[in-house]
TrEMBL record:
Higher taxonomy: Bacteria, Pseudomonadati, Bacteroidota, Flavobacteriia, Flavobacteriales
Keyword Transmembrane helix on entry: yes
Keywords: Membrane, Transmembrane, Transmembrane helix
Transmembrane spans: 40-62, 100-120, 175-195, 207-229, 235-254, 261-279, 285-307
Annotated protein name in UniProt: Predicted membrane protein
DUF2157 domain span: 39-150
InterPro entries: DUF2157
Keyword Membrane included in the entry's annotation: yes
Top-level taxonomic group: Bacteria
Length: 317
């Protein structure tokens, strides 16, 4: 296993290692060397350059929209997508650079459909616009297996579904929509976690699973809070049962993986839900003080528990 900074500090307190030896171990195992900084700066400037280029293309169309004919608009966007895709296929390009360029190409696909929608007045905020964008980058997402591109893909699916419920199936109750969004995002999160645990997928960034977990918890919190305050209770028991099961699984996984993120986000969500249930009992101002006291006490207890767990985990290393 890779030696961490905390491991070296623990060893130094219980051994006779000299300061020079500790410094040498830190340089070899912890500190970033020249090559690591070169790799970071290369990826950083490539990402920054592609991001600025994509933003420049979008602003170019926005500023010169009236002076361009519809064929020029479509031709320019299509040529940019073709060029970036051809660059991705070059064999000498590193995989990280290829994935970053492919992510920029995926954004350009959205620009292409937005231009098409503006020319033919199909609607840039219609659900089928985001549906087409999602479908046409599916192959790139699967092949690249790049976390930022996966995140874009998941956001597009959520956006497509939300717009579909607003524009097509307008009679669906809000709690049903939130429940389906919670189930979808939780399923995606569990798939990535289980694939990583089974070693079927490697190098899943922590920030990626954290964002997925945050989205899932957000939908769960909104759904339960809305269900507590809503008069229609037909779907709420199902949502509450699923949330209890998933939160129990999340706390178990947080303890097993020694991750303070899950052990802080889930209790915060529970505190918000309980506060909503307290407010449901009375709509008067007299309930604000008990709710405020409950939030202060509960958050303090959660922080104290997390601090104790962090100390325990450090001593176990």
């Amino acid at each position: 296993m890779k030696i961490q900074r905390e491991d070296i500090h623990i060893i130094s307190r219980h051994s006779n290692l000299t300061e020079q030896a500790i410094e040498r171990v830190l340089k070899e195992n912890v500190y970033n060397d020249k090559e690591m900084w070169k790799k970071f700066l290369r990826l950083f400037f490539i990402t920054l350059g592609i991001g600025f280029t994509t933003a420049g293309i979008i602003f170019f169309f926005a500023y010169n929209w009236a002076d361009l004919n519809k064929f020029a608009k479509l031709r320019l966007t299509e040529m940019l997508i073709i060029v970036t895709t051809v660059v991705v296929l070059l064999p000498k390009i590193k995989s990280s650079t290829r994935n970053i360029i492919l992510t920029g190409s995926s954004f350009l696909v959205g620009v292409l459909f937005a231009v098409f929608g503006q020319i033919y007045q199909t609607g840039a905020n219609a659900y089928d616009f985001f549906l087409a964008w999602t479908l046409f980058i599916t192959l790139w997402v699967v092949v690249s297996n790049f976390a930022p591109l996966w995140l874009l893909y998941i956001v597009l699916i959520n956006t497509t579904f939300i717009l579909y419920t607003e524009q097509v199936v307008k009679d669906w109750p809000p709690i049903l929509i939130i429940t389906l969004l919670f189930l979808f995002n939780t399923a995606i999160l569990l798939i990535f976690i289980f694939l990583e645990m089974d070693k079927k997928i490697e190098n899943v960034p922590k920030w990626f699973t954290y964002i997925l977990a945050l989205g899932s918890v957000t939908f769960a919190t909104a759904g339960v809070s809305f269900g507590l305050l809503d008069e229609d209770q037909s779907i709420f028991p199902v949502l509450a049962l699923i949330v209890i099961l998933m939160y129990g699984l999340g706390i178990w996984y947080g303890i097993k993986s020694k991750s303070g993120f899950y052990l802080s986000v889930i209790p915060l969500s529970i505190i918000i839900m309980i506060s909503a249930s307290i407010l449901k009992k009375s709509e008067g101002a007299e309930m604000l003080l008990p709710v405020s006291l409950f939030i202060i006490v509960s958050v303090t207890l959660v922080i104290m528990k997390l601090v104790n767990l962090q100390k325990k985990w450090k001593n176990e290393k």
